[in-house]
Amino acid sequence: MNTTSSEVKSIVNQNAQTLDVLPAEELVEIHRRYTSGTTTNDPTATIKASTSLGLVALDLPKAQRIIRELGLTGRVKVVTHRSKQYVIFKGNPRSRSILTGTRYSASNPKVVDMAIGRRGVNKAIASGARISIFFTVPVNILTHIISDDQTKAEFLSAIATDIAKASLVAAIASVAGSATAAVTTIAAGPIVVVIAAGISATIGLDALDRRFGITETLANELQEAYDDTVGEINRQAAEVNRRLKWQILNGRPVGQGIFY
Known about the structure:
Blueprint: H1 5-14, H2 24-36, H3 43-57, H4 60-70, E1 76-81, E2 84-89, E3 103-105, H5 109-113, H6 117-146, H7 152-183, H8 189-212, H9 214-249
Helix pairs in contact: 3-6, 3-8, 6-7, 7-8, 7-9
């Protein structure tokens, strides 16, 4: 039976599953810390911080590839010709194994994949931000599942701040990479600066969160907003229900003083 590519894609999407891997020992330790009350440290904070730094460090292989392909001081120049950007590589093309030409379009897959030029650097940053979100959100879900006292407001605030941190780190790294690309022609310069800026921003934002309690403040605001809206509606509904039951049990006109 012949199956078209669209049918194959549909079958894959229908049967797609997400698998989040966590060592059993680590899961047991996280649960023990939450239920024993013997420590005030948040184990998931360590996991998320380590994950964020690790994902930023995933750009290191890209920097290594550039250096291996072009050399530590390998240089490139970005020029615009007829509204199109091109990346011109300096040096002998015979010494290179991947970028064997002297000029490529800035959108060329080889150039973008190696994080050369502004477009390549920004793609690497965006990929890192997406992966960071994909990793930290399941950790927050795990925390909510195993914690007996974490409220929904705290759960939502943790996700919101983690996504905001990932977005802000990506923005800081993008600005740093673009600025570096504008002042230097060293091919590996922008991605190296992006890695350094990403690690510094991640550490700095986590420190600011701990210092000023941003996540906790957001959780309190969400809880207050819930209490003032949904919570108040629930309280009023409960009061109406209580009064209706009393009227029914005591033979009073049902709804009097409530609806009329």
